[in-house]
Amino acid sequence: MVRCSKLIASMLPLFALTTQHALADDKQDFSSMQMQGVEQIEVKVDLDNAVKRLSKAVQFKTISNQDRNDFDEQAFNDYHEFIKQSYPLVHKTLKREIIGDPRPFSLLYTWKGKDPSLAPAIFMAHQDVVPIAEESRDQWLVEPFSGAIKDGYIWGRGVLDDKNQIHAILEATEMKIKQGFQPSRTIMFVFGHDEEVGGPEGAKSAADLLEKRGIKEIAFVIDESAPLTPGIFPGIRENTALIGIAQKGFISLELAINSVGGHSSQPPLESNIVALAKAVTKVEAAQFPYKLHDAVRYQYRFMGPELPKEQQAMYKAVAYGDNDNLTQLEKDFINAMAANQVTRSMIHTTTAVTMFNAGIKDNVLPPSATAVVNFRPMPGDTPEVIIEHVKNAIQDERITVRDISASTPATNVANPHGQGYKLLEKTIRQTWGNDLIVSPFFVMGGSDSKHFQARSFAPDVYTITGIQLESTKEFEGFHGVNERILIEEYGRSIGFFYSLIDNLEDL
Ligand SMILES: [Zn+2]
Questions:
Q1: Domain 251-288+349-403: which CATH number of 3.40.50.720, 3.60.21.10, 3.40.718.10, 3.30.70.360
Q2: How far is the CA of 161 from the centre of ligand 1 (A)?
Q3: pLDDT (tens digit, 9 = 90+) per residue, 214-254?
Q4: Cα of 136 to ligand 1 centre, how many Å?
Q5: Would strands 461-468 and 106-111 be described as parallel, antiparallel, or unpaired?
Q6: Residue 342 C-alpha to ligand 1 middle, in angstroms?
């Protein structure tokens, strides 16, 4: 689950802006880009039994702990077996593989299409869930892994993040197979086992595997992100569906110095600790420049026309601007974003010094010292670019720089004007109606699909969680207490994937 609350908070300060440039004349059209007149469809679902299956799914404690040695293999094996028993047609028709490196607990399903010349599509979701914080346990109204069905909801850890998506996909597929349907293009499901810790074992292996098998292009990927929520975007009271089109990357660099130590009674002019401290200081001072990434521009192109009139001139400038020739309105936007710690992260690659280790005794000069700097790269800033940037900032041959993370580069940007986006918007409107705003957005967190979206073979990755929340208050369930899903809404979510399978025929 991406950090929704953070992402939402990041949009807030923009609305406190007062712009002197309001309603500036501009020839560029800035009218609504919302799809019109889509007919709503109600998909008939055997909801009682689907609810029982999701309730049972929640009872498997497929937890991703920060300590990776604390891993319950049995819980995953039992969950796999339960899935197999629950969807007989899926398991008769699709190929199932258990993959992951070094631990194989992710599931890869392949639903062979009729036309092998068409590039495949991928539906992603994750099996693992975050642990229950001990101090929050007494705030839960039900046992967190009970899968209680009560008051019109299914309750429990993972019921919103993200077992609901695994099971909605499988329910929809079981229905389609029962009706004799076979997709034109191959559809694969990737259900990772370590999304909550970055997906290095599951989703990354899946991407490696498909690349190794020679798949040149993946036409469409859908993965979790923000659910539909009224008021998710301040200034718009309407229901809003945000479709993630790009995700930030992740890289941690270790800076180290290894030279001679010695006795503290005869110190050199510069100790290892000071040399490294200077290097770290330079890295923090050399902040990456602010820029308006295409994903942010696209976001305002779709969202801007739906926002209050007074600020539309600025949003329009952002939507259609050009990085080589920033206008005053775009600069105003950047300044407003940069003034706030949260929004600032949307407009550049962030630099965070997170660890510093040296020395073991008060009278010993340590022979080495290490520090770790964590970066969240903007799309476009590759690990190579970042390492180069750091070395240039330090200008010290004694300091070594090493990537110690299972780094993921920043992703490509999915095309919000392409057929994939359009069919997704159509599916959203078929499921939840036309009384909502649909917009692309730049995801500040990331989910398993980043392992695909960062590669050239899967440019069009779209992320959205196909459920409707009643209000922003329900976000508290994600990684928090009283995670629950409305039964009725779970039914709609199954319908969403059912319609998506149909609509993919038009891709
Ligand atoms: Zn998740």
A1: 3.30.70.360
A2: 5
A3: 999 999 999 999 999 987 766 677 899 999 999 998 899 99
A4: 20
A5: unpaired
A6: 21
